[in-house]
Design brief:
The protein contains 10 helices and 6 strands; from the N terminus they run E-E-H-H-H-H-H-E-H-E-E-H-E-H-H-H. By secondary structure, it is mainly α. Helix 2 runs parallel beside helix 4 (118-141), helix 3 packs antiparallel against helix 4 and helix 5 (152-176) packs antiparallel against helix 8. Keywords: Membrane, Transmembrane, Transmembrane helix.
């Protein structure tokens, strides 16, 4: 794979959003095809697929799903004390996911795509989608108090930035290269080689996507004319086309970009965020103002509104849980295959004791300590008579019982 001139990694030009190659680290990815493959040459990236970072992101997404479901029960009981604790924990976990996902995106923008394999690109997409899931679910489950905290000044721009950048990347892949080939979703356990080991630039950069460097390129098998002066000289292949055996047993069958589910999951999560914003606006300008004016709502309208709320709530929670389960399973399958493939040059992605892998779980542990302290403080206030276990119509919570 040759080096191509470029001005920057990502940029806007007259043709729209595009990718260009800056560098190639020459780890010998294409050596996976052939009778004597050179294993142990695939460079791991613990900053992207490290066990500590991945475990922290998955744990955060699962924790947000469970706590968001638990807040439904607390809202029904109108338990203000415990609801405040869970809401604070949801905000802290969602903020950590936002920071980590933003770091992922910045790392991808600053790191040449020839230095990032398709395997690591899949990991990045999954982890950022996990963060988007926590953002959308936290916004919806905590919509009553979201704008009553000072943190919304940063949470809203960061959330919009993450969704926008991820949307740009996926739109480029989905709309510009809709029917172009992309490496397989998950390689089978019994096969050690895969197109996932190729740099992701082979499937994004136009100069490489249709060139001989891409084994899935339709132009790989273009024939060149025979030697001049020889009448019977037959044209030969620049590169022999991949056989069915090579695809099935070595590199894997490619899939087209529009069949990759990441874009559809992103669309569903964006819909969830929009519904959360719409519900928050409706809560502020309709429900709260009606409550302040002491206006009563007809019984039929209250029933219809209640059914609509639960329908949207079921949709948002279902989308977030589906995305969390799907991305978690995909990450675990990819990491399991990479560990057993024999291509990783070292075990840096599986080392728990490195500082970069310890910090994300420790940050999650700090949030857990804060949750426990919050429980203890509110419990002491209840015993001292400062608060009741069930405070109805709380002004700070916007009247959970009525929304």
């Amino acid at each position: 794979m040759k080096r191509l001139p470029s001005l920057s990694l990502f940029f806007w030009n007259q043709r729209g959003f595009s990718f260009e190659v800056e560098d190639f680290n020459g780890t010998g990815y294409l050596k996976s095809i052939g009778p004597t493959p050179r294993r142990g040459k695939f460079q791991p990236d613990p900053d992207v697929a490290g066990v500590g970072i991945i475990s922290s992101m998955i744990a955060q997404a699962i924790a947000v799903c469970l706590l968001a479901l638990w807040t439904l029960y607390l809202k029904k009981r109108n338990s203000k004390i415990w609801l405040e604790s869970f809401t604070g924990f949801l905000f802290s976990v969602s903020d950590m996911s936002s920071i980590l996902s933003l770091a992922y995106i910045i790392n991808f923008m600053l790191t040449g795509k020839c230095k990032m394999s398709t395997y690591h690109y899949y990991i990045v997409l999954d982890t950022v989608l996990l963060a988007c899931s926590t953002i959308a679910l936290t916004f919806h489950s905590c919509r009553h108090v979201f704008f009553s905290t000072r943190g919304w000044i940063l949470r809203v721009p960061v959330a919009l930035l993450i969704f926008s950048l991820l949307g740009i990347f996926l739109s480029y892949q989905f709309f510009v290269h809709t029917k172009n080939n992309f490496p397989e979703w998950v390689p089978p356990v019994g096969r050690n080689d895969s197109g996932l080991l190729l740099p992701v630039s082979c499937f994004f950069d136009m100069d490489l996507m249709n060139g001989k460097e891409n084994p899935f390129s339709p132009h790989r098998a273009i024939k060149k004319p025979g030697k001049p002066g020889k009448k019977k000289s037959k044209p030969v292949y620049v590169h022999e086309p991949l056989t069915e055996t090579q695809l099935s047993r070595q590199l894997g069958h490619p899939i087209q970009n529009y069949k990759i589910p990441h874009f559809y999951l992103y669309g569903l999560l964006t819909l969830s965020l929009i519904l959360g914003i719409a519900f928050n606006i409706w809560q502020h300008f309709v429900v709260d103002r009606r409550a302040k004016a002491s206006k009563t709502t007809p019984k039929e309208r209250r029933g219809l509104r209640r059914y609509a709320r639960w329908a949207v709530r079921f949709l948002v929670y279902g989308i977030s849980i589906l995305c969390t389960v799907f991305c978690t399973v995909h990450i675990l399958k990819l990491r399991s295959w990479a560990e057993h493939s024999g291509w990783l040059s070292d075990e840096s992605e599986s080392r728990w004791y490195s500082l970069g892998q310890l910090l994300p779980p420790m940050a999650l542990g700090i949030s857990l300590f804060m949750l426990l302290d919050s429980w203890g403080e509110r419990g002491r206030r209840v015993k001292g008579g400062g608060l009741n276990m069930s405070q109805k119509g709380s002004k700070e919570l916007g009247g959970y019982r009525h929304v």
